[in-house]
């Protein structure tokens, strides 16, 4: 195989690795969401460490397989994958903190009360529910984690 052809394969493989890297992380998220609550915070932290180690192991195995397929050293593939992860991380917008999200919610609720769309009691109930993690998704703990979730 020529040197030019190897570089083409390497670039194609790294592009695929960026896409596949997302697929590798996805099962970790799915398992984390399906996990039953642990009896203590320390065992929850242990589970998080175990999951991180399993993810690192899978990523290492992937890098080794990719390196073997491309005929390049594993260290080169690992470094390239890390570089791509860092670039992707830098390109993502920063997520607002839990405090910022909570402050924004309070502002929207205050405006809704002022506009007559909610009563103050309703706004207070929504705030209390959000603080208790009743709402799922990025704004509350719920099913997807977030504010105040142990290990996050």
TrEMBL record:
Residues 1-32 form the signal peptide. It comes from the Bacteria. Keywords: Signal. The keyword Signal applies. Coiled coil: none annotated. Residues 34-62, 83-104, 131-152 are annotated as: Disordered. Residues 136-152 have a biased composition (Gly residues). Residues 48-61 have a biased composition (Basic and acidic residues). Transmembrane segments: none annotated. The keyword Secreted does not apply. This is ClpA/ClpB-like protein.
């Amino acid at each position: 195989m020529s040197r030019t052809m190897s570089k083409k394969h390497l670039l194609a493989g790294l592009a695929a690795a960026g896409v596949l890297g997302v697929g590798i992380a996805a099962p970790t998220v799915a398992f984390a969401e399906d996990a039953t609550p642990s009896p203590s915070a320390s065992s929850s932290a242990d589970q998080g460490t175990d999951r991180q180690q399993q993810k690192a192991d899978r990523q290492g195995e992937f890098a080794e397989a990719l390196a073997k397929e491309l005929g390049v050293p594993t260290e080169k593939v690992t470094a390239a994958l890390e570089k791509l992860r860092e670039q992707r991380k830098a390109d993502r917008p920063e997520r607002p903190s839990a405090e910022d999200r909570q402050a924004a919610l309070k502002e929207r609720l205050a405006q809704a009360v002022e506009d007559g769309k909610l009563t103050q009691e309703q706004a207070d109930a929504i705030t209390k529910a959000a603080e208790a993690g009743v709402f799922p998704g990025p704004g509350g703990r719920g099913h997807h984690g977030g504010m105040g979730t142990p290990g996050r």
